[in-house]
Amino acid sequence: MTIGKAFIVMGVSGTGKTSIGTAVAQHLGLKFIDGDDLHPRANIVKMAQGQPLNDDDRQPWLARINDAVFSLTQKNEQGIIVCSALKKAYRDQIRADNPPIKFLFLHGEFELILQRMAQRQGHFMKAAMLKSQFDTLELPQPDEQGVCFIDIDAPFEQVVTRCIEVIQATG
């Protein structure tokens, strides 16, 4: 019997969440859900105008992510959802009333991520907003369950492999 599981690939914008999450999902045959696709219209418009989201803006988005986790697990599917999950309260909201979730925290230095963002095309998140993401980020602490740090200061395939190993280790 398949056990439904959700893996959240998280981190600030520019860490490669979507690219890495897609590659890992394809490699393991998991469902892939881009958290950006779960943002309400108002959030997308706000970010496209270069305005960072506030906690009130994020509430309906986090509820949708929580529902996506619930759907995966209830349908006995396994999948990857990518989203920033910058604050512990956001991660807790995603966890609420769901089975245990593994968060894969893609992390790297500000300068590395800024350089990568400058090379991106066609994404509504602007490089100028990166500072607000780092300001908002609450690093997961050792007592926070289910979070694995994945260093992105490595070639793409190596980061993908690190994520795959964490997922496979969870059984």
Could you describe the 3D structure shown?
Pathway: Carbohydrate acid metabolism. With 171 residues, the chain is of the alpha/beta class. 46% of the residues lie in helices and 15% in strands. It has seven helices and five strands; from the N terminus they run E-H-E-H-H-E-H-E-H-H-E-H. The protein has a five-stranded parallel beta sheet. Helix 1 packs across helix 7 (156-169) and helix 3 (55-74) runs parallel beside helix 4. It is globular, with a radius of gyration of 15 Å. The mean pLDDT is 90.
Would you summarize the structure shown here?
The chain has 171 residues and is an alpha/beta fold. It has helices at 17-28, 41-48, 55-74, 88-95, 110-118, 130-136, 156-169; strands spanning 5-10, 31-34, 78-82, 102-107, 147-151.
Map the helices and strands.
Blueprint lengths: L4 E6 L6 H12 L2 E4 L6 H8 L6 H20 L3 E5 L5 H8 L6 E6 L2 H9 L11 H7 L10 E5 L4 H14 L2
Parallel strand pairs: 1-3, 1-4, 2-3, 4-5
Helix pairs in contact: 1-7, 3-4
The CATH architecture term is 3-Layer(aba) Sandwich
CATH class: Alpha Beta
| Number of DSSP helical runs | 7
Question: CATH homologous superfamily, by name?
Answer: P-loop containing nucleotide triphosphate hydrolases
Overall 3D form: globular
| Biggest sheet: strand arrangement | 2-3-1-4-5
**End-to-end Cα distance:** 13 Å
The pLDDT mean sits at 90
User: Within the CATH hierarchy, at the fold level, what is the topology?
Assistant: Rossmann fold
**Main pleated sheet:** 5 strands, parallel
Secondary structure class reads alpha/beta
Structural Rg: 15 Å
Report low-confidence residues grouped into runs of 5 or more: none
Q: H/E series, N to C?
A: EHEHHEHEHHEH
Q: What helical percentage do the residues reach? A: 40-55%
Give the total of beta strands. Answer: 5
In what range is the share of β-strand residues? 15-25%
Instruction: Compute the number of structural domains.
Output: 1
